[in-house]
Amino acid sequence: MSQQGQNSHTEPERWAQERLQSIDTLKAPIIQLGRDMGYEVIENHDLGAGPVHITWVFKPGSESLPDMRLGFICLTEFSNSSINEGIARAMLNLIDKLVFVVPTETMTKEVKDAIESMPDTSILQLRKFVTVLTPSTLVSKSGIRGSRERRSAQTGGEVV
Amino acid sequence: MTHHYLDKLVQAGKEKGFEIEQNVDYGAGPVDVVWNMNLHSALPNIKFGFVKLGAEEGQGASQDTEDNQLSLRKIEEAAFRGIRSGLDKVYLVTENEEMAKSVSGKIEWLASHGSLIRLDAISLGLYPEQQESSVVIPSQKRVPEGEKIRKEKEREREEKFDEYNRPKGERRDKEREEEKIERELKFDENSRPKGQKKVLDD
């Protein structure tokens, strides 16, 4: 009986441990990429509303413009409550754009659909605020130049 | 108890002629009660949502209401559930008055960081027996009254100070000659160190 009790106590702990581990796995390439690109990288950015797992802070080119904060929140499983909580944390911690990092492409679709299914009458339209992707998409796409960049490289002109 | 209150909310909404929805999910999670208010045929409906906040947790089963406090996480989640559901106002229903005040205070604090969204303009804490207004009076409105009381007390204190600690020069002007001699004698007598007390002649 005591063993049973012990098991029931350790189960949530084990679950939390696994969740933390998978968050760390999702975080690692984003931290690396942010540093490689020369951004200021903050782990667990928190102004009081709860942690945003990673934040890239960068200057948009002029001293007179405010710093931009790109926040990354890792989701290990799909649920509406975790999406709500993530959006709340990002908005209330003054994040300018939020990226949900998820482990699989299937989950990317689920989260995207959930965000896009908001009623049109809603005060917030989150499509422009939230992006959903997997770490592999982020890392692989960072090495690919956009069509504009390619064109400008060919013509030797600058991207405006 | 909260269920009973939700029934009351449904009843109150019906009495006012609002269209009521119960336990609805618009895709962002469940909302306990929604009042659809049709104020004018030319205007769109206004939606008031009520979300019950409890101590129970989904997976961790932690009880965070023992000290009448609900976690920020729950408050944020419930408020954004309402916002994502397209509600115009989201009221968070708690077990008692203390919790409701704590929730409203936390919402105000979260809104004070200057976010794009003014959470306190959309969300508030309510408790089952609430009759009075749930709107938290902002500190800017509370301060002038406090300032008034503080200044009154300060004035009283200064009056007392004036009475008992008047500067010497001022006192001397009003003193008679005999009073002055007596005061100086007493001062001389009592202000010397113990070993140097002046021995009075018999």
Strand arrangement, largest sheet of chain B?
Answer: 1-2-3-4-5
* Secondary-structure content class of chain B: alpha/beta
Uncertain residue segments of chain A: 1-6, 155-160
- Beta fraction of the residues of chain B? 15-25%
Percent of residues in helices of chain B comes to 40-55%
- C-alpha-based Rg of chain A, rounded: 19 Å
**CATH architecture designation of the largest domain in chain B:** 3-Layer(aba) Sandwich
Count of spatially separate domains of chain A: 1
Main pleated-sheet profile of chain A: 5 strands, mixed
Q: State the name of the first-level CATH class of the largest domain in chain B.
A: Alpha Beta
Biggest interface and residues each: A-B, 29 and 31 residues
CATH architecture of chain A: 3-Layer(aba) Sandwich
User: What is the count of β-strands of chain A?
Assistant: 5
Q: Could you say which overall geometry of chain B the principal axes of the C-alpha atoms support? A: elongated
Task: State the CATH topology of chain A.
Answer: Trna Endonuclease, Chain: A, domain 1
N- and C-termini, Cα separation of chain B: 88 Å
Give a brief description.
The complex is a heterodimer of chains A (160) and B (202). Chain A contains 5 helices and 5 strands, in the order αβββαβαβαα. With 160 residues, chain A is α/β, with parallel strands linked by helices.
Write the layout of secondary structure elements.
The complex is a heterodimer of chains A (160) and B (202).
Chain A lengths: L1 H35 L3 E6 L6 E7 L9 E7 L5 H13 L4 E5 L3 H12 L13 E4 L1 H8 L4 H9 L5
Parallel strand pairs in A: 3-4, 4-5
Antiparallel strand pairs in A: 1-2, 2-3
Helix pairs in contact in A: 1-4
Chain B lengths: L1 H14 L3 E7 L4 E8 L8 E7 L19 H13 L4 E5 L3 H15 L7 H4 E4 L12 H26 L3 H7 L2 H14 L12
Parallel strand pairs in B: 3-4, 4-5
Antiparallel strand pairs in B: 1-2, 2-3
